[in-house]
Amino acid sequence: MKNALLRYRVMATIVGVLLIVLILVGVPLKYLTADGTGTHSAGDFITEYLGIGHGYLYMIFLVMALLLARRARWDIGFTIVTLLCGTVPVLSFWAEHRATRRVRAEYPETAPEHSTV
Known about the structure:
With 117 residues, this protein is an all-alpha fold. Helices cover 78% and strands 0% of the residues. Residues 6-101 form the DUF3817 domain.
């Protein structure tokens, strides 16, 4: 369970960060700046390449989330909300936190080990 949670959290974070950059940086630069400018080109580059990368990584995220959902025996509603929240910038981080909190509550062995120094 611990490894499934870790894989899910890593993918959720990567996909969430890429989505924020894509939507809050790339799209405005592409569509709100004049054609032919450096900022427009940067926006075009971000939306094209980061968009493709995000799409592939989102598919991996879906697989990791579904594997975790199956292993943790989530109900269909919780699973669907978790998957859909991965498509909304910033909300994806809330969904990751919510899912992690639930898994750690139901499976205490997944809680991080605290070292005493």
